[in-house]
Amino acid sequence: TQGAQGIQGRQGIQGHQGLQGFGYAQLQGLQGNTGTQGLQGLQGPLGLTGGSITTSVTTVAATETNVVSLAVTGDVLAVGHTYVIKAYGARTGTNNVSATFNVRVGTTTSATAGNIAATGTIGATATASALEITALVTVRSTGIGGTILGSSTSHYNGATVTTNTTTPVTVDTTATNYIKLTMKSGVTNTYTFYVASITMMS
């Protein structure tokens, strides 16, 4: 006969489950420093206030005399800059001769120095009358050999005369220049200017 079945052995103890790993979120990089502020731009050239007379100016006979002037530094003169010259006055004397006015541009204040950018003539007449002069001069090119060109209009004793200059004159725009209105009266006639100015229009 078959013997009795033996007793089943005990089940072995189950091993412990291994520890689960912990994931780590990636760290965010540090924010960079704010950059330094840029340098401030250069200040533009100082604007011109213009030149004018504060006392009357009298021109006598054949002596060319300054009526009004404006000093313009080399860092201001630029292509396209236009200067307007205006003067108001009157003549005494009845000598029947003409008179001449000029707009000169040069590096000295002398009434006879500098190239003539604009000119005009008061026609010969024996009549003493009021006078108005208007002129414009424009910078055409810059540098040591820069150029400037102008034109003028005068009103005297009911006559209007406009003179156009067609050839620019040379001016050294790297230096300080004086824009001057000068007047040469006719013999024995006297012109007195009560208001005169030079300003940069553009």
Question: Can you offer a commentary on this structure?
Answer:
This protein is mostly beta strands. The chain has no helices and twelve strands. Strands 1, 2, 4, 7, 8, 9, 10 and 12 form an eight-stranded antiparallel beta sheet that branches. Strands 3-11-5-6 form a four-stranded antiparallel beta sheet, with no helix packed on it. The relative contact order is 0.29.
Order of helices and strands: EEEEEEEEEEEE
Give the fraction of residues assigned to helices.
under 10%
SS content category: mainly beta
Name the shape in a single word.
Answer: rod-shaped
Radius of gyration (Å): 44 Å
Largest sheet: 8 strands, antiparallel
| Chain-averaged pLDDT | 86
Secondary-structure topology with pairs:
Blueprint lengths: L50 E2 L4 E4 L4 E8 L9 E11 L4 E10 L8 E11 L4 E12 L4 E11 L2 E6 L4 E3 L5 E8 L5 E11 L2
Antiparallel strand pairs: 1-12, 2-12, 3-11, 4-7, 4-12, 5-6, 5-11, 7-8, 8-9, 8-10
